[in-house]
Write a structure and sequence with these properties.
By secondary structure, the chain is mainly beta. The protein has one domain (2-213): YmcC-like fold (Beta Barrel). Helix content is 9%, strand content 62%. It is built from 2 helices and 15 strands. The strands form 2 sheets. It has a 13-stranded antiparallel beta sheet with strand order 8-10-11-12-13-14-15-3-4-5-6-7-9, covered by helices on one side. The chain has a two-stranded parallel ribbon with strand order 1-2. A hairpin with a 4-residue loop joins strand 3 and strand 4 (44-57). The two termini are 33 Å apart. Residues 9-19 have low confidence and may be disordered.
Length: 229
């Protein structure tokens, strides 16, 4: 569960950048940013460095390919890979498939895998009191000796206020968003985890900080913007 929370915190952070399509995401080829994730005791858990390696303008927005490298607190590489970021008609689209941790995806590789998802969206304009679209993804392995299924749902996304947030990257005037998440796994044993999250988004910067809380409201850790260029 700890790795799932770290993945969710980090991947919420991946939706950050620079774009002409959405007020919060303004990017170009070579744009680079980094995040640091801390556990509930304030200890550094990992760093994620992301760089736009390909950027293509479309008739209604853009499609970008981002290279991502995650290292532990000592700088040892943990994961690396690529993902897409896209925007259309002013709406930034967050691919929910990226919220399935890589470790879980590898467990499904030996079988026929089916994925059903409903992507998250972020409009170009935010206002306090606004409700945002939910997102979900379900991954199922067919033909495995035991049922293998994982579902991530992000619901009750709301814009609840505005706050000034300071991180190593700078000080930003942010919109504050809250949401609830449910992670369900069926891999021989059924398990369900519920937690909530708070995000702070700044125009032209995107996600500045995100923090996760358990069902009792206790912080599980946070991710913050460490650098941006």
């Amino acid at each position: 569960m700890k790795k799932i929370l770290i993945t969710l915190l980090s991947l919420v952070g991946y939706v950050t950048g620079f774009t002409q399509c959405n007020e919060y995401y303004v990017m170009e080829n070579g744009t680079s940013w980094a995040y640091e994730t801390y556990n509930n005791k304030g200890k550094l858990s990992n760093r994620m460095q992301q760089t736009v390696k390909a950027f293509e303008k479309t008739a209604t927005g853009f499609v970008a390919t981002v290279n991502a490298v995650t290292t532990n607190e000592k700088g040892k590489e943990l994961t690396k890979g690529e993902f897409e970021m896209s925007c259309s008609g002013g709406t930034f689209i967050i691919d929910m498939r990226k919220f399935i941790p890589e470790e879980q995806q590898k467990m499904f590789e030996s079988y026929k895998m089916t994925v059903q998802s409903e992507n998250l969206e972020l409009p170009s304009k935010l206002t306090v009191g606004q409700t945002l679209k939910n997102g979900s993804v379900t991954m199922t392995a067919e033909g495995s000796p035991l049922p293998m299924k994982m579902t991530v749902q992000i619901t009750e996304r709301k814009v609840v206020g505005q706050e000034t947030i300071t991180t190593p990257a700078g000080t930003y005037q942010c919109f504050k968003l809250t949401s609830k998440s449910t992670v369900s796994t069926q891999m021989g044993v059924n398990m369900t985890f519920n937690f909530s999250s708070t995000e702070w988004l700044a125009p032209k910067v995107g996600m500045v900080k995100t923090e996760s809380f358990d069902k009792n409201g206790k912080s599980s850790g946070y991710t913050q913007l460490a650098s941006y260029k």
